[in-house]
Amino acid sequence: MNVFDTKKGGIIGQLVDVTTDGIKLSAEKPVDAGAVFKLKMVLPDGAEKNVEIQFKAICIWCEREYDSKSWQIGFKFTDISSKEIALIEKSLAAYLL
Hints:
Layout lengths: L1 E4 L5 E8 L3 E6 L8 E7 L9 E13 L6 E9 L2 H15 L1
Antiparallel strand pairs: 1-2, 1-4, 2-3, 3-6, 4-5, 5-6
């Protein structure tokens, strides 16, 4: 699932994992640890079709993937409801099937 940067526009990365505390993305470009983002996801078919979730998150870490041009980025949620987290988890599970 794509995750969008609402300030700069465009895709910041692909969702890899989600917990109640944050998300992990795979991205083409690194971001600075400590930077705060307003992010957006449009949930795919299978969970809550076409539901858009916007939230704020802070980059906790950013590392190059081993032997790859991609980056792994860890974000901590700073402004998201538990209902929205549950929707993301449900969508990710459906997406990975």
